[in-house]
Design goal:
The protein is an alpha/beta fold and 122 residues long. The chain contains 5 helices and 5 strands; from the N terminus they run βαβααβαβαβ. It has a single domain, classed as DsrEFH-like (Hypothetical Protein Ychn, Chain: A), CATH 3.40.1260.10. It has a 5-stranded parallel beta sheet with strand order 4-3-2-1-5. This is Sulfur reduction protein DsrE.
Length: 122
Amino acid sequence: MARSLVIKVTAGTDAPERCNQAFTVAAAAAASGVPVSLWLTGEASWFALPGKADDLGLGLAHATPLSDLLAAVLAGGTVTLCTQCAARRDITAEDVIKGIRIAGAPTFIEESLTEGAQALVY
């Protein structure tokens, strides 16, 4: 069975380096053909909205732009916005970038406990 990677990112502009690390790992995994699932929670929830990865510009030296990393993950993996995090921010399924789903803890647990899965939290 192929190994998969589940990444939960809780940081946004409040911790830009940690946020960018999570997106970088997810994009690298997707580009390498590893099944990857990136979960947007907490302050990272805002990146599910169109243009927010650019608008909130992390401006980290030597870092790939967050919008490019998100596009890479969407092209080769899945991106999920936490149900509760979306509700707290009044974000609906109609608001998010095409290809991003909204799901909750049961789905995260299911993905994380799949045989061969490795879960990381940033």
